[in-house]
Amino acid sequence: MGLIYADLELVSIGDIELERKGYIKKTDIKKVQTIALVDSGAYMMCINEHIQNQLDLMYIETKEAEMADGTMAALDVVGPLKINFKNRTTSCNAMVLPGESEVLLGSIPMEDMDVVLVPRLNTIDVNPNSKYMAKMKLK
Asked: CA-to-CA distance for 24 and 74, rounded, in angstroms?
């Protein structure tokens, strides 16, 4: 299986709330189009500092994270942000990787959007068993 990437739109939920309350126009909501490495071995959404600055996401906390090479790093957690993929959406916080690091789509937001990996095609897609709306198990 090769690497799988997803075209995502990331949106500042803080801006969505400001627009809802009438403080900013809909056209002023900060959004970023990005390509993310689909990483089922990662739990969280991971963005880089450049995207964090573009979306101006709020700092929430710092967490220690084990990197792919086994080293430990203290990373900021920011949010909330909205992730749009095809006809799916989810909201979550994100860990901030240094500099222009590759964006990672982790298993928690993937599960929430009810998407599946298609290794034969090296793609990600909406679950074919729930094409029009994400399904979740609550038990």
From this structure: 34
pLDDT of 1 reads: 61
CA triplet 86, 92, 95: central angle to 5 degrees? Answer: 110
How far is it, in rounded angstroms, from Cα 46 to Cα 18? 24
98 by DSSP, 3-state: which?
Answer: coil
Query: Own/partner pairs for 62-65, CB < 8 Å, 24+ apart?
Result: 63/95, 65/95
Task: Give the pLDDT confidence score for residue 20 in this predicted structure.
Answer: 97
Rounded to two decimals, what is the model's pTM?
A: 0.93
CA 39, 60, 102 angle in degrees (round to 5)?
30
Range 47-51 average pLDDT: 97
User: Does the domain made of 5-130 have the CATH classification 2.40.128.90?
Assistant: no
* Closest among 50, 6, 18, 14 to 32, alpha carbons compared: 50
